Amino acid sequence: MRRPTVVLGLLGSTLDASPRGRWERWRPTIDLCRHEDFLVDRLELLHQPEHQGLAETVARDVANVSPETRAVLHRVEFSDPWDFESVFATLLDFAHRYPFRPDDEDYLVHITTGTHVQQICLFLLTEARYLPGKLLQTSPPAAARPEKPGELRVIDLDLASYRQIAERVQAVRSEGLSFLKAGIATRNPAFNALVEQIERVATATRSPILLTGPTGAGKTRIARRIFELKQTRHQISGRFVELNCATLRGDAAMSAMFGHTRGAFTGAVRERPGVLRSADGGVLFLDEIGELGLDEQAMLLRALEDHTFLPVGSDREVHSDFQLIAGTNRDLRAAVRAGRFRDDLLARIDLWTFRMPSLRERPEDIEPNLDYELERYAQRHGRRVTFGRTARAQFLRFAVGSGARWPGNFRDFAAAIERMATLAPGARISGAEVDAEISRLQAAWSEGQVNDDEALLRRHLTAPQIAALDRFDRVQLADVLRVCQEARSLSDAGRVLFAASRQRRRSHNDADRLRKYLQKFGVTWTELQEPPAA
After folding, report:
1. Is 513 within 8 Å of 505 (Cβ atoms)?
2. Are 88 and 123 in contact (CB under 8 A)?
3. If DSSP codes are grouped into helix, strand and coil, which group holds residue 188?
4. Which residue, 28, 109, 13, 98, is CA-closest to 62?
5. Looking at residue 352, what is its pLDDT?
């Protein structure tokens, strides 16, 4: 037995209007009742109070073309049919009041008439099942056969085609995430969640983004990938301009940042645009922004807020509208407390802050990054190199082991792969190349660690305290201090330092355990977060 078909729709105050010759023109609400193979049992027609007369005329015309159809008029008042919030609220209220019987009737929601805002709201309410039906779209007949009814199409939001659209949207999103990760199939859950959040922010805003984390953790790479992602989405038209603020000294800093006019100072033989002007319409990546001087920080703040600045030697302001991505391996809040960084600039760039984890925090990602570096080597040198099975396992064991420091993070890791690939005979890395590289890394790290350890200890302990330490305690304490400096919190540092023993314990209080260890040497967590004095 056929179930009754009920159509809900809005009166078209223009399209459904009835001037002279109304039977010679297409009127959507009338036309949907003219189809021989499509019977509307009941038409629920929503209309504004001021269109009561037109609604009654349409109801009579519906009865004329389709006596089987019963038209029911509903006075619905839209304070502004183009205001999304009020339209949605009005239609939602109607949906709550209407006595739907989805087990007994089939509902169609006609979205051809009404303002575009009203049509969108009908779509959203149908998708959310507040209106428990399918969408109905109508269109005029072909010009050659005006006497025939127009086209109509039923759109079921539960159909596989709609799911396929949703899957395509998700696929595009996944492509964006893969793009930010340079196609590396990273496995670390925390890093993948971080990249997903970066993708959402990068494609939704042009506000400043701050990337923090240790040297070599990938801040520059992710900044460039953010730019390229925005470029593929047609969200940006300018260039990617990069400047390492740690390389700026004295007057050259102002010139590099903001440009200068010809003759602005001795040696200024030609005009220089500066990186802010060069990045107009694009992305400016200021790496190591914590190294900027206070004067440059003040001018950068004004450029971010007003999009204007004065080049060195000029009395005419320059306009530049860029998105800033800043990178730092320093604690900028500690720098503010020390008077080395402006608190107002930090407040401006700290809207979206993402900490890039070190390589040691992402042991699951070492293997996929190994494959990525081999692919990069092949692209650069036109020579594809692979690992022998045993050699690959040997290097991965070393790379994720507790003895692998990777102080330069992914820079050190990429360099190691480059050396082994270059020296591999027959384009295949064997155990001999792995042994040689491991020995080289351990020697370099040992040599560097002696100096690093002494500097760390001198920074946090007095000379008498250091002299009183056994050699064993010196090595252990220095490693603990280094991990603490790279960690976001005391708990994170504890998880790294006690990773093995915590597997054997039922309860974990790594933060308290680490705090007590540091107290033995008179060192506090707050002190460890302070940047080294300039």
Report:
1. no
2. no
3. coil
4. 28
5. 95
- Residue 424 · residue 384 · CB < 8 Å: no
Residues 180 and 229: beta-carbon distance below 8 Å: yes
DSSP 498: T
Distance separating alpha carbons of residues 44 and 13, to the nearest angstrom: 16
The residue type at 105 = E
Write the pLDDT tens digit of every residue in 386-445: 999 999 999 999 999 878 889 889 999 999 999 999 999 889 999 999 999 999 999 888
Q: Which residue in 52, 48, 55 sits closest to 30, CA to CA?
A: 55
Compute the distance between CA of residue 73 and CA of residue 293 in angstroms, rounded to an integer. 71
Q: What is the DSSP string of 231-288?
A: HHTT---S-EEEEEGGG--THHHHHHHH-B-TTSSTT--S-B-HHHHHTTTSEEEEET
Strands 5-10 and 106-110, by their bridges, are parallel
Which tokens in the block code for residue 50? 């001021």
The DSSP 8-state label assigned to residue 312 in this structure reads B
Phi/psi-derived region of residue 237, left when phi > 0, alpha when psi is between -120 and 50, beta in every other case:
alpha
Provide the edge-to-edge strand list for the sheet that holds 42-47.
70-75, 42-47, 5-10, 106-110, 134-139, 151-155
Q: What pLDDT does 160 receive?
A: 47
362: which 2 tokens? 């992402």
Phi, psi angle pair for 130, to nearest 5°: -70, -30
pTM: 0.61
Between CA 213 and CA 191 the distance in angstroms is 13
Q: Among candidates 257, 218, 229, which has minimal Cα distance to 241?
A: 257
Instruction: Give percent of the chain above pLDDT 90.
Output: 46
Q: Which residues of 158-195 are buried (b: 16+ CB within 10 A; e: fewer)?
A: eeeeeeeeeeeeeeeeeebbebbbbeeebebeebbebb
3-state secondary structure 142-187: CCCCCCCCCEEEEECCCCHHHHHHHHHHHHHHHHHHHHHCCCCCCC
Averaged over 353-374, what is the pLDDT? 92
User: In sequence order, which residues have a C-beta less than 8 Å from that of residue 504 and are 6 or more positions away?
Assistant: none
Q: Which amino acid is at 119?
A: Q
Dist. CA 242–CA 230, nearest whole Å: 16
Can you tell me the distance from the alpha carbon of 312 to that of 296, in angstroms, rounded to the nearest whole number? 11
